[in-house]
Amino acid sequence: QAYLSYSNIAALTHLAAKPGWEVTSILDDVKISTHEEGDMLSLKVEMQVKIPSHLAFSLLSDFTFRQQWDKHFLTCKVLQTVNEDEKIYYVTSPPMTGHKPKDFVILVSQRQPCKPSEPYIIAVKSVTLTSVPPSSRYCRSEILCAGFQIYSDSDSSCTVCYFNQVTSGVMPYLAANLTGSSKSIEDTAVECIKFLE
Question: In which region does residue 141 sit, left (phi positive, over 0), alpha (psi from -120 to 50) or beta (all else)?
Fold first, then answer.
């Protein structure tokens, strides 16, 4: 478990640090960038939020709040509290036209910064739990690497960066047409900012 949580944080840190992010859209307080590598498509959404970074961290690290602002989260419940920095959640998402609804078993690892210049980190990846086998009602899906980095800009504002690494199979609507879907990403980001503020 220690290895899993370490690799979860490390994978997100590695993804965030990759060179070659291309900005695809800028709208008011939201900037969307993508990074392509083979059949891996990564997404980065930067949001300017007018609350302190520690508050954004506490709101975003509790995934049971997620369905208040992210319409891709239909339900979310804690399956296991591994320790104070690690929880395993069971998430379902609404069905896309012609598809079964998806479900996920995810490990969410959180870290506070050691130095003021470092971000708060909330890393997400799928894990396998024998107690939650795939069911025929849902299409079990995998999150390879996702999460948030939260940088403090001042005492009352911060930059929240959301990352998601997807393969072409995970999010058909994302990979099929990034430009078209940037609207839904922007909408979600705007909802996230509203929720935080």
Answer: beta
Q: What's the number of domains the chain is made of?
A: 1
User: Please, what sign has the CA dihedral across residues 188, 169, 32, 164?
Assistant: positive
Tokens standing for 159? 């930059």
Note the pLDDT tens digit of each residue in 158-171.
Answer: 999 999 997 655 55
CATH number of the domain that residue 151 is part of: 3.30.530.20
Report residue 126 CA to chain centroid gap: 12
Q: Is the pLDDT of residue 173 over 50?
A: no
Instruction: Report pTM.
Output: 0.90
Task: Report the distance separating Cα 5 and Cα 108, nearest Å.
Answer: 8
CB 150 within 8 A of CB 163: no
Q: Residue 170 belongs to what domain range?
A: 1-196
Q: How far apart are CA 122 and CA 5, in angstroms?
A: 11
Cβ–Cβ contacts within 10 Å for residue 111, how many?
20
- Asked whether the beta carbons of 92 and 74 are under 8 A apart, the reply is yes
